[in-house]
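Hey,
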Amino acid sequence: IYILSQSIHNKKFLESRADLLSEVDSMFSLFFMEYLAGIEPENKARLMELAMLKDFSIDELNDLFCQEEPEEFLRWLATNQLCFQTTSHGQTRYYFHSLLSDELKRMFRRTRSEKELRAFFTGAAEYYLERDPVKAVELYLMAGEPQHAFSIGAAYARECFNGGVPERFVPVLSLFTPEQIAQNPYLLLMEGMRVLNIDRIRAQTAFMQALIAFRKLGDYRFLMNSFGMLMVVAYQHSSFADLQEAGKALPVLGIFLKGGSARTLLIISCFISLVGEDKLKRASRFLRHLDRKYIQEELWHFSYLMIRGIYHYRRGDLLSSRKNLETLLNHPVICSDDQWRIIGLVSCCNVPFLQADLELLQFFISEFTLLSERLNSDFALGYAQYLRGFLYQIQGKREEALAAFKSAKDAYCSYGSHVLQMEAECMSFIISDETSPEMIRRARIIVDNLRKENTSHGLEELATTTLGILLKRAGELDEAKIHLENSAAVCRKKGALQNLHALFLQLADLYFLRGEDEAAHEFYRKWMSLGKENGYIYSVPFTQQSLQRVLEHSGGLTEEDSYVREIVDFYNAARRGNRPEHPVKLTFFGSFCLQIGDRQLTEKDFRTRKVSGLLKYILVRGEPQSREKLAGIFWPESDRKSAGTSLRVALYELRKVLSAAGLGFDCEEALLKEGREGFALSDAHVVFTDTQQMEQLYEQWQTSNPEDPLQLLMRLCELYHGPFLEHGEYDDWVSIQREYYSGIYYEALHALGDLAVRSSHLPAAKYLLKGLELDPLDEVSYSHLIALYEATGQNDRAASLRRQFKKRYKQEMGFDADV
């Protein structure tokens, strides 16, 4: 306001500074130069130097800048309100407002020669070499020494990769241009990892370029690291055609002769590749060797565990795959890096639905949803929806399952994996209760495409089985028989027992439909025997319709069919589900509180007020709230992209809080749901709010003649503990509602006071006192309270209250109160 007023109205001020106006590009610059002219030259110089750093500590003032009496300098900064402070890793750090920082940087560059600038940045970079590689890289780039920056960046990339924490390297990547990244294989490798779960094509291209560059450098270890990341992409995409091309670039003989860790990585790669190609029997030989070997590199050990888990569940060994899953979920890599957490969860996400473990399945869905929100990853979102489809199928919710698989397909499309899209489409066809010529035509196309893709994880068999199921439904039993028996033969050859288990049931159903009861009973017995032996409850492609038909044809359940009875009981229980036992109680007046049974959420449970504000706003609005609207309301000062990013971070935190309370977006008791139109309260709960109660009591008081109006008004006033959505700024709707509820409260409070005075009802005094705590200058409530004290014989108390209020009112308002 001062700058604006001087600029607009003080002509002499501007005329006297005409020489300076030609040097600046904003009025702020002019006023800031005026301010700096009045401080000590050494302090001014120090401010400009410090502005070249993102932030600084007292240690850097002392060691890097050799500041005399650094504590005194910091006190001077604080006194002049020139900087903010924050705490990072237990250390207090200081930084300037962006306006001040930008202006100081401009002044520093304007007042220093190129040689002086290079010397300053180089000296600062050398200081940070051992302390903070990210700052060292940034400062060397500012000094015009990119080769030093590349060297430090490459060393830090190796450290982050070998330590299993590639996420730490992301700030370094942002310092380089795409052209600079393309020149350095270590940067290329880390760039690929950065976009691994966001953009498959970019990640694959970066890894391939890094692999070729490492081969030229002769760095076989990181050549194998690049190849390992290409294998991760192949597993994510469930397609190994591109990996085979990359394998041709490997100098296998050179790696083997060189020995050491590169040779071990090559052996692990062979195991991973064999499992990916479903050559499970050959892979078992490598597994026995590697299980006896210590794998030093964290990421490679983690990768080996992932593929070992896939090997076990593909072989139908659910017990071993479950043990492997527990080891994987406690591995340091999955606990320290979210990108690798997604990859690790994907590797073992089949275990919960193959074991029909609904609680574990819900955990995976929540994890994928959280990670997709945090990293904006369509890949993770696709898996969240894919697993949700299985959950709904097990619970007998066909329409919900179809919608989930459709959402998974859309997310995979955004990620760029047509193979995963086809997998989700197959699952939609399997659980659908209908068929059509178009579905059969589409299934044939999927079978042909997956054969060309050289896919893994039994996807080709899944597609062939899907086609067989559709043909069976359409009455094309001869062709259905060919496809189902071919799939069974392939699964038998690979040793993929759980898929074979599902096919036995489909074949039993098929042969009953063909009228070949003897063959049908044989497959039914095989299905029961294999399932009982291995503890299979669910297998892909399982359909409850097929099981029901097979049971009808086989004469129903007998006493000996304990395994089948267990399955039927499980699905019946899963279909019933668990409706929440307790209603949700929401408090919006004053301090926010959400209570359901013995669970409670208050402001202290949320990381920031904006996180709790999001929840409160969505709950109170009723109708769905879009992401765009929420971003605009809560981050009005940010551009659209920044606001969207901030919203994703806040939603990630909100999801964590709700999941911890058992109310996560993806569980049976979900409090909120996200649909096409936005976020809204889910229909899983009966909800009671203090706002609803207030409106009901108010309407009852206004439209009827209650027998005891005093009691009704006291109940209404009891609900109000402060303004509606008290903490935080929202939109105009909230402001209007805040005034609306405040108006109801004070109308009821004043009516209560009037009735209490007329009936000398002293218990009403506590409600008047509470109202005066909320508004200490409410003349009407003071008048009623004073009159109530007088009516009940408390004259001294009334006189004292009158004196106190008149004095306070005069001080605050400047004129006498009407009491």
